[in-house]
């Protein structure tokens, strides 16, 4: 079976050279006589793997030295609780900006840990089709932090600017767009991301946090989710997700070999343009998101005649275009086109959509 074009929102397609290297090193990692899966996390081999992964990530994102990188578990949904547990204690309250289902979930979870205020929301009639504009953000200068989601994986709404929050630390859920383009880390207090989109495989959660924000955890915070404790232990307070860290390290090196995040941005812009240009001229397929806020990572789209959804998906599958079904909460279709999706995959999808429209439109 040849490899398919996999449009899954995550776990998602990975670069083939990374998978090949992992396969080559599976039984004997560089003369160690064992697989990375079998290594003690405290042995010199794995310690070097983790240190190298961190160094590559720091180089890719130009992470300033006063930021700590943590390799944790629990995913983005875990961070919805772990962020407030660690940060809200600074002033006792926090602001949340809503641009879709994921930021809404973050705010709902955070409300268990202290008073949360919605500083802005683009919700209209139960849908989120744009980023709230900077002028709509009504920020509380006394908030411990402001949280927003940089890319709404379900709704396909992405924030392409860095919010200005004055002195209030900015917290960003970048689960689905980290490493898709350069960002200025120094503008953030904390960035988190589940790894299973652009970074690697599931099981690993990246947290990049400014050091002065550590040390405010609520007393009930589990030690394993206390950023300061994990920072002191080099993310080894508990056994870290070793194999996922290894895969992330291979992905970072691969992205570096392709020219880093500027190259990723050019590649992702080109791919997204192919799909959105087609959608905008189509009379059969559509995407309702405000053009300036359309995600370059996740492109939801709808057929004019939804009774053909299943026919569309079956035909796509037959051509090796898989995992296009939209999120169960919104229906329709969704093409996730992360870093590792080649432009050929997007072109093959558009060719199929054009033919489908000609036949059924
Ligand atoms: N935030 C965003 C933006 C996501 O896309 C996801 C997963 N799709 C999550 C949070 C939750 O991630 P996890 O399932 O790894 O906890």
Automatic annotation (TrEMBL):
Domain called Aminotransferase class V: residue spans: 4-349
Cofactor (UniProt): pyridoxal 5'-phosphate
Catalytic activity line of the entry: O-phospho-L-serine + 2-oxoglutarate = 3-phosphooxypyruvate + L-glutamate; 4-(phosphooxy)-L-threonine + 2-oxoglutarate = (R)-3-hydroxy-2-oxo-4-phosphooxybutanoate + L-glutamate
Pfam families: Aminotran_5 (PF00266)
Entry keyword Cytoplasm: yes
InterPro entries to which the protein is assigned, alphabetical: Aminotrans_V_dom, Aminotrans_V_PyrdxlP_BS, Pser_aminoTfrase, PyrdxlP-dep_Trfase, PyrdxlP-dep_Trfase_major, PyrdxlP-dep_Trfase_small
Keyword Amino-acid biosynthesis belongs to the record: yes
GO BP terms in the entry: L-serine biosynthetic process; pyridoxine biosynthetic process
Pathway, per record: Amino-acid biosynthesis; L-serine biosynthesis; L-serine from 3-phospho-D-glycerate: step 2/3; Cofactor biosynthesis; pyridoxine 5'-phosphate biosynthesis; pyridoxine 5'-phosphate from D-erythrose 4-phosphate: step 3/5
Gene Ontology MF annotations: O-phospho-L-serine:2-oxoglutarate aminotransferase activity; pyridoxal phosphate binding
Residues carrying N6-(pyridoxal phosphate)lysine: 197
Subunit record text: Homodimer.
Function according to Swiss-Prot or TrEMBL: Catalyzes the reversible conversion of 3-phosphohydroxypyruvate to phosphoserine and of 3-hydroxy-2-oxo-4-phosphonooxybutanoate to phosphohydroxythreonine.
PANTHER family with a match to the protein in the record: PHOSPHOSERINE AMINOTRANSFERASE
Name of the protein described by the UniProt record: Phosphoserine aminotransferase
Annotated source species: Ramlibacter aurantiacus
